[in-house]
Give the backbone structure.
Amino acid sequence: MNKFPYKCLVLDHDDTVTDSTRHVHHPAFLEALNELRPGVSVSLDDYFRLNFHPGFMEYCEQVLSFTPAEFERELEIWKAYVAGHVPAAFPGMRELMQEQIARGGYVCVCSHSLQENILRDYRENGLPKPTLVYGWDLPRALRKPNPFALDDIMDRLQLSAKDLLVVDDLKPGFDMAAQRGVAFAAAGWAYEVPEIRRFMQKTPPCTLTQWRRSKGICSIRRGFPSARPSSFSSS
């Protein structure tokens, strides 16, 4: 495994560490739509797209026109579904985190999932407990892409921007990292949506991530994967 020159990995959770959107969040959203907007459906790829841009809350406000009461009901449905479904971590994540910690580094999480669910997923998948977790529990104004989490990590762990690497599959994570000049790695292994891939390919000077399933590890490389994970070589 490549040796990362970063003291702190700031990991997204869904579709970066766990394979959760296709197995948890998308089905939960369809369940909410069935109750709140009968006849409206969103495909899995379109769900990835709307989370990439304009963002989940913005989509619900601008496209679905959810009322405050409907937002509360959607949250209830989501929480209930997530409580009964634990997504699997991607192969190699445990080893990646263990090596980072063994070198004296930190693993932090910045996600749009709830903190209690993030910690549960880490426990159930046998992952090391993260040093700090920033989730949906934060006030909306402080959630990514707001760089609050990065500022807090740097302050509490006495680190600088060059010590951090953000790993995320969506634009909010990229935007958060860009605001503080923090290195960014695109998690390109959970799905393949052309618009998201093109954005990551044309947005230098990011450090982007390639998944090497044959070895079950993550390696940081230049350039977005040009093939699906199953076709990566073991070299």
Q: What stands out?
A: Residues 21-83 form one domain. The CA atoms of residues 50 and 56 lie 6 Å apart. The mean pLDDT is 85.
